Amino acid sequence: MPIVGVGLGDMEVLEGSEYNLYGIPKDTIAQCSSLAFVMGLEPSNNPNHAIIWEALNLQSKPALQTLINFKLTNINDFSLPPMKTKRQSYEWYTPKGVLKSNWMAKYLHHIPALVAIFYTLDWSDSNWLNKKNELANIVSSVKAIIGERHCRVAVILLQNAAGSPATDSSSPYAPNSETETNASLSGERASILCESCDLPTKHLFVLPLNDAQLIPGYTARLEAALSEIAGGFYLSESKTVRNHRDFLNKTNHQLLFVRHCFKTGFLLEMKNDLQAAIKAYQQSYQHLSELRFTDTNLHEIRISSAIINYKVCRVNFLLNLPRDAIAQFRRHIDLFRPRMGPKSLIFEHYAWLASQYELFGWLFESAVQQGLPAVQTQHPGFYYQQAAQFASLRRTTALHLCSAATDQHNHMLDGIDSLEIYGQRPWRAGKHSLEPPEPEREACGVEAIQYHELTKVQHHEMIIPLYSRAMAQFQRYRCPRIKQQLMVQMATEYQKAKQYQKALAVVQHVLGQYRSERWWALVSSCALLALQCASAVADVPAYVAAALEIASPRVTLAPSLKIQVFRDGLMRVLKGEVPAAPPASTADAATSALAWTEALQGSAAAVEIDMSALVPCVEVRASFSSPSCTAYCPSSLQLHVRNNFLELIRVRDFTVVLEPHANSKVQPEHEAAAAEKQMLLRKESYVDLISREVLKLDFPFTLEPLVSPYDGFKIASVSCCLDGSADGSPWRGGGAAVRLSWPGAGAAAAASSHTPHHSEFLVLKNPSFDTLSPKTFIKVEKPEPLIDVEVKYDKQALVWEWLVVDVLVTCCEPRPLTDVRLSLSLQRPVQAALEATTRVSSCGSSSSAAPSDSCGAAVQNIALADELQPGQQMRHKLLVRSLTAATRHFSLVLKCCKSVEVAAEQWVQCPAVHCTALTVTAAVPFVVELSCESLQYPAMQQQHLQPQTTSAATTVRLQQPFLINARVSCSSHVPVTLHSSKLMLSSGVESYGEGSSSCSGVISACSLSAGEAASDCFCLQVAACSTPQLQLGHFLLHWSRCFLSMSLQQVLSLYEPSAGAFSL
Amino acid sequence: MAVSIAVIGKDNAPLYMWVAPGRDELNLQFLSHTALDIIQEKVSPANRAPTDSRELYLGLLYASEEYKIFGYMTNTKIKLVIITDASNTTLRDNEIRMMFRRLHNAYTSAVCNPFYSPGDPLISKKFEASVGALVSGN
């Protein structure tokens, strides 16, 4: 994608109010476009003119190729700079310098390539003759003013609709925009007009005004045509300049070779012929580099080379040749970097270099904005960075060299911004010589420059914006660490500019990033910078944080410095005194002392320092002594504190904050409650932390029971106060109260501690502080009541029976238990299949009848007693029914409230829980076999009926009696009693002879032990049947275990299989 | 020869740092740190050509006015950074590559020490001696 010169021109950043001694002139940076003067337009009075003017100016902005800079003028104001007399020979001419400062401005602003005269005149105008003459007069007076110069003149006729409809809008050129009928008239008058104005026919245009919509289109074409004419002017000018070369010789006119090539390039650039322009510029640079440099003329050559180099680089970027631009820039720097100039003005060298890098960075950035791709290792940021570094060097050298300069020679610099030749010294203007003509005057001039540098130049105002521009670039090209380095440099710069707050903000931001990557040397330098800045502005929290950071063993500063910062800085702040200025601090001592006095008076609130964010000088690990504890029972928390500093640190008021913690997600309404439940464990006394030793502190506590969803406490934070009274006298108050806090149990700071990355290597460490893995969570268990729970039940249950579980609770507590509740449920985790086939019921709930099958697999919170006195017993029966043969585990939970003595004679009610596990294995008690036989007893077909299996079909005949034989064989481990049996018949089946729909069997009150069997027999007939297959009915068997106590005899188990299907 | 050698761990924390006597140590540390930006970009899977996946030498990372910074990354993501003077034109790319190889070997021997725990700063006389030999050109 070609890069075109829009935007590559107006550089606001360089346009400071101060004349920049080492930059390049504005005219160099200005956009190079053909200059045209416009006459005869009055945009403020005439709306049509306004439209044209707007369109002309609009065109020159976004349109890429036609670049004309239009300037509005009128015949009275029109003037041109006077022309110098043409030199016939250069033989005796000695140039004053390389590049003249007025030349570019002349072509940019004062000498137009073209004067465009707008004039309202229709071909068929009634007053044609007069107007034609008036126009001819205007043209001739313009030509008179132009005189010897070769500026072109063009006339644009503004024609209103009537006479000349613009049927052909393809060209604004007069003859083409005519209709055929008017062609002869217009053609004739056009040529008359050209003749009387002495204009070539190609310089006459017609701009129809009849349709305002079309005007922008016409002006675009007009501008293209005008730009061609202007190009002709610049081409001829450049040829004129080039022809001067023939008169020059290499001995006297080396400077003119440079100048003429530059002029040629500039004119060609105005013509927008970039290919030709760059050749000329490069040639000019080549001539320049062949000149002889001495300290005397170096400055002039530097500035001239900067101008030419800028032009070469810019045109290269415009031609989309970024590599050539970079190569040119490198050559340029390599050529001039070793030429440092006189020692007393070395800062000029750096100023100039900084300016070169900045300009190139800016050119590069503009090219990127126009679509040039840049990469991580080659982008404008590097140039800005280098510019900033040179600017910084400039300041260093300037401060070093200029300190003795006085203002007595200031007049030497008069007229520095209006020199005839770029880059010359005002005290010897117009003299391009290799040796200073007057050494004494030279020395005075140097001192004036030094004084100017020292007093007038605000270095940081140049350096800081360079850094921030570089940072933006590095951010863009994914170099976060280079950006961090720039931020440090920027902070240093802010510090030098005495903008300590800004420096502090920047450096604190970077500190965190260096800490996280554990570059301790970088952390150290930043921490020291932070300390200096915080000290200068008396920022207490920042100061304390930086001082604590410096105290850390990780920070690679000298131990003596650390101790000095700790004793004379931090300790004094704690005592309420003004701290000693940190080493290498540049701040004004008196101002910062004042700020400190104010800050220390005002700091009533404690300063809280988050130690986990720092590289710690004091580390803590808090750990519960056990992973769980019982409510109201004493438990404890161990706090290990290690002092990594070189000296003793005295602290007081250790506080550990515990907060409720839930494993599941907590509803917002509970969160507020949790905040209230926070617990503080404190030790207010003084503690001396001996250097490099670990101190263990024990915090005993008892916890209250928690409500759901919270099930325990975790360590929220650990904190302590730094104490200023290290000399042994108690703390008297006053000064800053500094509280160090570690969120969590102190393990959060582990990233910066000594813990190895791989736990396998823990064995290499001392088995102490570093390897401590803190228990940060404690589960609060409910206390167990002192009760005796006796559960009587048969572990071998029978399937289908309601097994009696007899619970006897005896209270052994010294005080009554209240609100005793019983629950029985399957043990967790519950299998769905077991849950579906288990029924649990409480006997007390419906003692009169057998419990219904609708009850679930658990009973919850059956109220046993409101109060259970000491020694009192309580009995309760529960019923459990297993519907499949399997082993089931139950938990029997007894909840109650017990009284707990929290202090002498202080009792609180506390929920308590007692758990008992039950196991029930169920087996099938008996098997029923049903068979169908004819009255003559031959077995029709026999089959076993397992409970819950569907019976197979047997064939019987309608109206024929038959027998159903039921045989019950017992497999139970205890004898069972069969109380009665019954056959419930379906419709259409009846008992033979009786005709009833049910018949009682003969089994009644029959006890069976394992291996025994009982039989029953029924005689049935099928009376009517509509379907070929039919279900006969159900066989009901009432049974129970033998020897059940009376109260439970009603609880009969029912065996109820379908009695078989018969096909007919 | 080199003015600075840095061994940087896989989590970007420095393990070892050597700076030629008389140099601005802090500035060279800053430079070694910034080199990580470009290493990171060079070894990111998106930018790496599949053919050179076994090439550990990353070449010239970037050059400032004063220094040239070269990079190398082992398969275990240990980054080696060598900084030379920008004016030193006698050092060829191949020599730098050889220096990295030798540095890598020295590092490998150093971490074979059973008492060294990975991720800790390298404190080893033998490694120190290898680096000394490397920078003195022997």
UniProtKB/TrEMBL annotation, chain A:
What GO terms fall under cellular component here? cytoplasm
Pfam families in UniProt: Foie-gras_1
Tell me the domain of life: Eukaryota
Q: List, for all copies, the residue spans of the domain called Trafficking protein particle complex subunit.
A: 298-552
Supply the name of the protein.
Answer: Trafficking protein particle complex subunit 11
> Where do the TM regions start and end?
none
Instruction: Report the gene name.
Output: LOC108664815
Region Disordered, as annotated, extends over 163-184
UniProtKB/TrEMBL annotation, chain B:
* GO annotation terms (biological process): endoplasmic reticulum to Golgi vesicle-mediated transport
Q: Which GO terms describe its cellular component?
A: perinuclear region of cytoplasm
The compartments listed are: Cytoplasm, Perinuclear region
Q: Which Pfam families match?
A: Sedlin_N
Report whether Transport shows up as a keyword of the record.
Answer: yes
Query: Has keyword ATP-binding?
Result: no
What are the record keywords, sorted? ER-Golgi transport, Transport
- CDD domains listed in its UniProt record: TRAPPC2L
Which PANTHER family does the record cross-reference, listed alphabetically?
TRAFFICKING PROTEIN PARTICLE COMPLEX SUBUNIT 2 (PTHR12403)
The UniProt entry's sequence similarity note says:
Belongs to the TRAPP small subunits family. Sedlin subfamily.
Know the name of this protein? Trafficking protein particle complex subunit 2-like protein
**Whose protein is this, by species?**
Hyalella azteca (Amphipod)
